[in-house]
Design goal:
Helices cover about 45% and strands about 15% of the residues. By secondary structure, the chain is α/β, with parallel strands linked by helices. The structure holds D-ribose. The site of D-ribose (RB5) has 8 residues, from α3.
Length: about 140
Amino acid sequence: MKIAVGSDHAGFELKKFVLSWLERHGYDFEDMGPYSADSVDYPDYGHKVGVAVAKGTFDQGILMCGTGIGISIAANKVRGIRAANVCNPDYAALARQHNNANVLAFGARFNDEESVDKILESWFASEFEGGRHQRRIDKIEPCC
Ligand code: RB5
């Protein structure tokens, strides 16, 4: 399991925690930036992580911005990406089980390390359930 991790400046500090969590739990990962807390534009990192996952270089992505909203919207513009902006461990589990989400996003201004620890545990403990959920995912296509 190879994980691509990115953020914007608002997620920069929390990204450090995520990277250390992945290291502690034995995941193979890459920090795709940014590498300082200077102001950046979240689409640049949402796209970068999204493309890395869509191309198959990485299995999953993790993204953070202030709310998780902008960076997940950007990642979802990459074909094949299902980025879920989650706010608690149940959302993280359901994003994997029902939506086969391949990118986890959350808001760094609304989650502390304790809540992110639980979100990550739940995300990685959960598997896609397939069946009717696969049929629904197959219907998620650009339509106009
Ligand atoms: C940056 O101030 C903020 O707009 C960004 O981190 C994010 O919350 C956007 O969705």
